[in-house]
Structures are given as C-alpha cells and as structure tokens.
Design a protein that fits this description.
The protein has one domain: Alpha-Beta Plaits, CATH 3.30.70.260. Helices cover 28% and strands 35% of the residues. The protein has two helices and four strands.
C-alpha cells in the first residue's frame, strides 16, 4: 500500500480548524459569517505579519461529515477577503 496516497481516517463529527489569511480582521469575520451561515464557530486572530500587511485568524468549528468540511472550505475559498486557507 502506498502511504502517500492513503486518506487519513477522520471520525465525524469532529472539531476542525482552518487558518485564514487576509488583510483585515473585520473583512475576514464578515466572510466567515457569510460562508458558514448559522453554523456555530469560534474565530480569533492568531498572528500578524512583520510589516502588518497580513493577518491570520484561526477558525474552529464542529463538522458533521467530510462533505460538510469540504463545503465550508470551498465556501471560504470563494470569499475575496480570504487570501489563503490552511
């Protein structure tokens, strides 16, 4: 078995986190609310770049299944204020 192509086993529902990188915390917060709708979540600022041009924010939430996790990722990816998602 090739371990590089094996999918990790994730037991759902589970707590999941994304690191979101953008330029403004308020804009990122609005984008998260738009992307997740009424889903409960926790969002907090994590770091700021040395020159202050970018910030990262940690988003934590409970995902019920892989489809929901990927749906949230894709919805966040569509938001203009979010430059990068980890």
């Amino acid at each position: 078995m090739d371990i590089t192509s094996a999918k990790p086993k994730i037991d759902y529902p589970c707590e999941w986190s994304y690191t979101l990188i953008g330029r403004e915390a308020d804009a990122i917060a609005k984008s998260v609310k738009t992307a997740l709708g009424a889903k409960p979540y926790k969002l907090e600022q994590a770091r700021q770049s040395a020159k202050g041009s970018f910030i990262s924010m940690r988003l934590e939430l409970i995902v019920d299944c892989e489809e929901e996790r990927l749906e949230f990722f894709n919805a966040l990816k569509q938001e203009k204020s979010i430059i990068y998602i980890l």
